[in-house]
Write a structure and sequence with these properties.
With 326 residues, the protein is α/β, with parallel strands linked by helices. Helices cover 33% and strands 17% of the residues. The protein has an 8-stranded mixed sheet, with helices on one face. A 3-stranded mixed sheet has the order 1-5-4, with no helix packed on it. Strands 6-15 form a two-stranded antiparallel ribbon. 39% of the residues are buried. The structure holds iron/sulfur cluster. The site of iron/sulfur cluster has 9 residues, from loops.
Length: 326
Amino acid sequence: MPYQWWSHDPIGVEETTCKSLLHPFTAHHSECPNRLVINPYTGCQHRCLYCYGTYFFFPNFFDIIQVKTNAPQILQKEIQKYKKKHEYFPQVYISPATDSYQPLERRYHITRQCVQVLQSHNISYYFMSKSDAMLEDLDLHAHYRDRCMGIWTITSLDEQRRKIWEPFTVSIKKRLDALERFSEEGIPTAFRIDPILPFIDDSSEQLEAIIAACAERGAIHFTTSVLKLRKEIWTRLENFFQDRGESTLLQQYQNLYFNPSDRRGSYYYPKTNYRQNILTLLQNLAKKYELSFGTCLEGMPHFNTGPCDGVCLPALKIKKPQQKFK
Ligand code: SF4
């Protein structure tokens, strides 16, 4: 039996309620834009091997999906509260720590309801996904095209590689088709090549093929980031390489990572010159395909030619009730 990084099949589903949903984006980097985030689910059915969302506070990330059934109601209350205290409502990033359009969304429609709440307040939002389930909500997003954006993560065009690294996602073709349908509706679209896996899918040919495919389908921006290793991510990778007898890759990763000077918080970054070379290559490719380009958590914002996440949607100016003279 090949190595698996999850414990339960089929995956468990737990309907739950949340006390809060709307949070500031806290990626702990000064280069990150001011956004608010919501995660309608905890855990993710896609089970990507390299996933950053598998934090220790939810060790069942790949085994149980918590469906926050009251998310739309909580969001409604939190928006009203936020509006009373602030002059601007930032853009909302839907699902930085899960996939808002994972398969369960087709059953529960929690993301859809949250989107309806955001739209009812004129708030700009964007989602990031590896799915095509958002096509069911295409009309909903399309009538709001000036204030929403769709972003798809595409790390490779190789279907065999996708089945190994992102085993429960839809095919790359379905993701590209979804991106194209959104573009055709006039909704701004972008893609993320994130994470780039060193020595696996980092050649200029592989990267250019992704960029060409997405640019052809109407994307206007891409964001990229090279794989960072946290302890449990490295454990999964190490087990995976060992299980497959990939001793060369194992050695290459050990050489590229784990230099104390390349540690940021709980993450090990690849060597700086490796990252600089990749980002230079991608910046040039962005120019060639006339796309704006951003880097994510690389600490090298000088490579960016647009906002790091590609989001140019307006923040909502909140109208305060006029003061009456007494
Ligand atoms: S789609 Fe995103 S959140 Fe879901 S498992 Fe993959 S990397 Fe993690």
